[in-house]
Amino acid sequence: MSSKNPMQTVELNLDFSHWCSVKDHIWNTGDKPVNEGEATHDWEFRIKDAKDGDMRHYVEKIVIYSGRFAEPVKVFTKPPYVVQESGYRNLGIQVDIYFKGINAKEHKQYALCLSPSLEELSSGKKDNLRREKTSTQRKLITISHKDPSVIKRLVKGGGKLLEDEIEIQRQAKTYSDRLVQGPGQTYKNYEQSRQKLGTFLENKVLQKLMLEDEIEIQRQAKTYSDRLEQIEHVKKVRAVGYRLYKSDPNRPSTPDPSDLEKIKSWKLDLLDLQSSEDVEISPEEVKEMVTEAKKAYPYNFYNSNIPPDHDLRVVKTPEPEELLRGDEWDDMFKTWIRDISKQTQNIRTFAKEKESEKIRDTRRLEREEKVKDDISKFKESIPYQAVLLNDKQRPPTPGTHLALHRDNNSIENWKNAIKEKYKILAKFLSDRQFRDINAMKDTLLYMEYAKAYHFKKVGHVKTPHGGNSCLTLKDWELKFEQWKFELKDVVDEYNKQRKRSSETSCSEIAIDISSSAKQPKISNEALKKSF
Questions:
Q1: What pLDDT score does 194 carry?
Q2: In this predicted model, what pLDDT tens digit does every residue of 145-160 receive, in sequence order?
Q3: Would the pTM count as exceeding 0.70?
Q4: N or C terminus of the chain: which is more exposed, having fewer CB within 10 Å?
Q5: How far is residue 125's CA from residue 21's CA, in Å, rounded to a whole number?
Q6: How far is CA 189 from CA 150, 179, 182, 202, in A?
Q7: Is the distance from CB of 289 to CB of 243 less than 8 angstroms?
């Protein structure tokens, strides 16, 4: 990348939107949620480019997280960037967007509000409430960069060069001015300016309408899908009535999911056909309808929260062994559903107690791990290691189950007992080290070393100190013997050097004497001739 590339700025317009809808078993029945914990809404959170640009060109990954997700952290590396969950209360969502070729990330927050609220649903007054809600927030992100490839990816994915936006605004202002100054122009130029300004403003309005249409289409598609699933479910739960309905050549067609009133009427027609006294229902048909009914509320809630052998699982599934009239099966089915519904409050209480127990167990395990970690760290300390190596009767390690009680001081008492033993041990080792060092300094070996060191004939041999490296008497004795060995080695080497130096001096003196004895004598006459 050339350093001559100018800094360029791109604006990204991203839509953060959510859709929520009250669950079918709450909206279409008289069931009222009375406490927190049970999911009351299905919801969806989505991130997309405001102009439907392909965000894959510039997005490396998007991380969406919230403590209320089933999985708190969700990572998306490609579209669609959508989270679908169920819940019962409002939540905050954190979003981190990582861009290709850019080290920095963009952090955004979003408040997802579920409507109607739990309090409104609990009141049971649904006439003035809307089951579904859609909300969208526009998030503006501005990115400046010198790398042309980064700018190209941003623009290709739907971003807008800020220079282009400024130019568009400038042109719009120019067109507007020209309209005002129209009489001073030719008619042709005036008409062109008016048309261009109209097109510019029309495009802006059109973009907004397209965005609103897209949001509405998504909402309707979700509603249509839910109702289609509901129709298929009713066909199987009222299978006998549906077969009779299909056998009538003059029957109206199955209602379209978009027509809620026709769906309600159609469901009642199936129920009337199936609950007739003239209809016979076999055990196999009962089994078929019961199997489908177990997939929906309230049985799925009952079944998912109560263990198979629990005392609360008291409602028996209808299993007739002979033919039933339609009205008999209708009474049996309604009684079964009613008995299960009566258990829902007990189930919610049980589920809440189960969750509380899970939280207590989690906290207990956390405290236990903390205690274990505390004990483990203390066992690595000098006091514990010293007592461990010297004292066979050290205080026993307390059990973690005893230390979990807030009023229990077993851990601190154990630590203090170890520290007291360490103080006694450290005092004994310190006195022994002081005595051994002073005794050594009174020996001829140390005095000879000290004299040579004073006259800078030998290097320094450091006097040992126990410190943290000597946790036992054996450690000190080993260190002390090593010090004596080092002193002796230094003194012996010094004495060898002195001996070699002395022998060299004697040899040089002997050579001088012998060489002077062998010189010839010169006569007085020879001396005179030399001068």
A1: 54
A2: 888 899 899 999 999 8
A3: no
A4: C
A5: 16
A6: 39, 10, 8, 20
A7: no
Residue 27 burial (10 A CB sphere; 0-12, 13-18, 19+): middle
Q: Please list, residue by residue across 376-390, b when 16 or more beta carbons sit within 10 angstroms of its beta carbon and e when fewer do.
A: eebeeeebbebbeeb
Provide the percentage of residues in the chain whose pLDDT is more than 90.
29
Task: Identify the weakest region by mean pLDDT among 198-202, 208-212, 425-429, 527-531.
Answer: 527-531
64, 95 Cβ separation under 8 angstroms: yes
Residue 450 has pLDDT above 80, yes or no: yes
Domain ranges of the chain: 8-118+130-223, 284-358, 378-440, 444-517
- Give which of 333, 322, 319 is closest to 274, Cα–Cα: 333
User: What CA–CA distance (Å, rounded) separates 284 from 47?
Assistant: 48
Contact 9/142 with Cβ under 8 angstroms?
Answer: yes
The fold of the 8-118+130-223 domain, in CATH, is: Immunoglobulin-like (2.60.40)
Q: Are 27 and 176 in contact (CB under 8 A)?
A: no
CA distance 173 to 193: 11
| Residue 178 CB coordination number (10 Å) | 18
150 burial level (CB within 10 Å; 0-12, 13-18, 19+)? buried
Asked if 59 and 157 count as a contact pair (C-beta separation under 8 A), the reply is yes
pLDDT digits (tens, 9 = 90+) for 156-193: 999 988 865 555 555 555 545 554 444 444 445 545 55
pLDDT of residue 333 exceeding 90, the answer is yes
Residue scoring higher pLDDT (266 or 38)? 266
Burial bucket for residue 471 (CB in 10 Å: 0-12, 13-18, 19+): buried
CA distance 437 to 452: 19
pLDDT of 250 strictly over 50 = yes
CA distances 96 to 66, 74, 109, 138, Å, are 12, 11, 9, 16
Q: Put residue 346 in one of left, alpha, beta given phi > 0 → left and psi -120 to 50 → alpha.
A: alpha
**DSSP string for 29-95:** SS----STTS--EEEEEEEEETT---GGGTEEEEEEE-TTSSSSEEEESSS-EEEEEEESS-EEEEE
pLDDT of the residue at 318: 92
Task: Please identify which residue in the block is written with the tokens 């719009």.
Answer: 172
- Our measurement of the distance from residue 200's CA atom to the centroid of its chain's CA atoms, rounded to an integer in Å, reads 46
Q: What backbone phi and psi angles, to 5 degrees, belong to 278?
A: -85, -5
Contact 45, 20 (CB under 8 A): no
Amino acid residing at 388? L
Question: What is the end-to-end Cα distance of the chain in Å, rounded?
Answer: 95
* pLDDT at residue 509 in the model: 60
| % of the chain surpassing 70 pLDDT | 79
Residue 34's pLDDT is 58
| Residue 215 contacts residue 136 (beta carbons within 8 Å) | yes
Question: Rounded to an integer, what distance in angstroms lies between the CA atom of residue 413 and that of residue 118?
Answer: 51
